[in-house]
Specification:
Order of helices and strands of chain B: EEEEEEEEEEE
Mean pLDDT of chain A: 92
Oligomer: heterodimer
Shape of chain B: globular
Structural class of chain B: mainly beta
Shape of chain A: globular
Low-confidence stretches of chain B: none
Helix content of chain B: under 10%
Strand content of chain A: over 45%
Number of helices of chain B: 0
Distance between the termini of chain B: 37 Å
Radius of gyration of chain B: 13 Å
Helix content of chain A: under 10%
Mean pLDDT of chain B: 93
């Protein structure tokens, strides 16, 4: 069964600084997807970034990038130039072929002015 | 940009009552999902729906729950006899294929009293 672990329940970062959120996962599949979703106080789930496991290149979306280490089953999210609007819960999620999303417990990120 | 919509945003109901949560997925998407998030906890998969039938459901999705696509646009989740522990945020999501990234609606906060 898929499992997703996020070992940092809470983190904080100063505005304009860089922060990295950790995620590890476990799957027996060779093909799968990994995602980071953001949940601001409004509680809407917003897709931040996705990574296909067969792609070696790390995904990047503007200030957001991932460090995907397939052998270590690690999928960390780096937020550069943090902004106040980045304050949210961040959920790591995995999606195997034939399965459904499994979410991690989340990391609460606070961006401090 | 197309988005998933959900109504109502907040529903308060008494224990034992039936509720129907409504979702309008993104129009060209073929896969639909419901998730639940109890306050302070992680997002949990309930059910997936494709080609007018349930493709997968979790242990949470017992006989009290049902889903339906009554017309070409709506996707509903019905809880027949609500319990206090059904109080949660319910998210609808859709994707154009599976497995692919899922786009979430803003959620319906269900409060059972």
């Amino acid at each position: 069964a898929q499992t997703v672990t996020q070992s940092q329940p809470e983190m904080s970062v100063q505005e304009a600084e860089t922060v990295t959120l950790s995620c590890t996962y476990d799957t027996s599949e060779s093909n799968y997807y990994l995602f980071w979703y953001k949940q601001p106080p409004s509680r809407q789930m917003i897709l931040v970034i996705r990574q296909e496991a067969y792609k070696q290149q790390n995904a990047t979306e503007n200030r957001f990038s991932v460090n995907f280490q397939k052998a270590a089953k690690s999928f960390s999210l780096k937020i550069s130039d943090s902004q106040l609007g980045d304050t949210a819960m961040y959920f790591c999620a995995s999606l195997d072929y034939g399965q459904n999303f499994v979410f991690g417990p989340g990391t609460r990120l606070s961006v401090l002015p | 940009e197309p988005e998933v919509t959900q109504t109502p945003s907040h529903q308060v109901t008494q224990m034992g009552q039936e509720v129907i949560l409504r979702c309008v997925p993104i129009s060209n998407h073929l896969y639909f999902y419901w998730y639940r998030q109890i306050l302070g906890q992680k997002v949990e998969f309930l059910v997936s729906f494709y080609n007018n039938e349930i493709s997968e459901k979790s242990e949470i999705f017992d006989d009290q729950f049902s889903v339906e696509r009554p017309d070409g646009s709506n996707f509903t989740l019905k809880i027949r006899s609500t319990k206090l522990e059904d109080s949660a945020m319910y998210f609808c999501a859709s994707s154009e294929a599976h497995p692919k990234e899922q786009y979430f609606g803003p959620g319906t906060r269900l409060t059972v009293t």
